[in-house]
Amino acid sequence: MKNTNQGSQVGFVAPDFTLPEAPGKNWTLSQTLGRPRVLVFYPADFSPVCSDQLTIYNELLDEFKRFNALLVGISVDGTWCHKAYSQSRKLEFPLLADFEPKGMVARRYGVYRNDDGFCERAIFVLDAAGVIRWRYVSPIEINPGADGILHALESLTINNVQA
Fold this sequence. Notes:
Layout: E1 18-22, E2 25-28, E3 37-41, H1 48-59, H2 61-66, E4 70-75, H3 79-89, E5 95-97, H4 104-108, E6 112-113, E7 118-119, E8 121-126, E9 132-138, H5 147-162
Parallel strand pairs: 3-4, 4-5
Antiparallel strand pairs: 1-2, 3-8, 6-7, 8-9
């Protein structure tokens, strides 16, 4: 699906949103201003490629912390599914439920797959002010790894030093 939402493009302020992080607990993007954020949209909990991808990020949390970056996963699965999945994988970062209305945030970011009913495998790196500085949509069957994310976070650091 071609993205026509300029607000989800590099150089634009990321669309704000609030999503459930757990039953009865919400997470709001604008409440995390002041530090880089990495938004990882993924198709589904418990799928093989998603599991590999999110496990890599979990193993690299110290690298994300080195850049003071906050990492969150987003899929259309519900909070109870996220809880079970997170516990089974021992994930140490929040998973947000873009469940109801289904895919609302993924649509705002231009990464919802209407024909499939889930989101693309997409990554957005936001600077401390909430501006999208890097965006990548991977083929659905391919784990994009972490190199691009870490390079984007390093670029934020270099740019901040020069500013």
